[in-house]
Write a structure and sequence with these properties.
GO terms for molecular function: hydrolase activity. This is NUDIX hydrolase. InterPro entries: NUDIX_hydrolase-like_dom_sf, NUDIX_hydrolase_CS, NUDIX_hydrolase_dom. The protein is an alpha+beta fold. It has one domain: Nucleoside Triphosphate Pyrophosphohydrolase, CATH 3.90.79.10. It contains two helices and seven strands. The chain has helices at about 45-55, 120-130, and strands at about 5-15, 20-25, 30-35, 35-40, 65-75, 80-90, 105-110. Strands 4-1-6-5 form a four-stranded mixed sheet, sandwiched between helices. The longest helix has 13 residues, at about 45-55.
Amino acid sequence: MVDKKKIHIAAAVIVDDAGRLLLVRKRNTSYFMQPGGKLDAGESPESALIRELQEELDFVITPGDLTPLGQFTDVAANEPDHLLVADIFRIQNVSGELQPAAEIEEVKWVPPADFDSLMLAPLTEKQIIPLVYAPV
């Protein structure tokens, strides 16, 4: 058995006041996922997420805006034979329209009732949604 190559990313869980989850789709891909991206060499997950959100959504945050939810692993949606290692952070009190930039093609606020109608990245579908929308 061949070990899968690992990709380390940082990603954001952003839920608005209506309970909708912010998802993005990168250009020339089919899967919707959390906004975020790969860590540069020597970069912390927090710094990577702050940089990626600014590049991809023109969304400016500070380290104090991030609440760590943990590190999760799943298969990478857009890179075959790769394993995704994701540091996930919640960001609260986001309002207004976020516009796609850089490699982001589409930005959507998705209500839970619509999750089944989208192609979701494995990490989003199998781990993030159950974590965020678990019955209390």
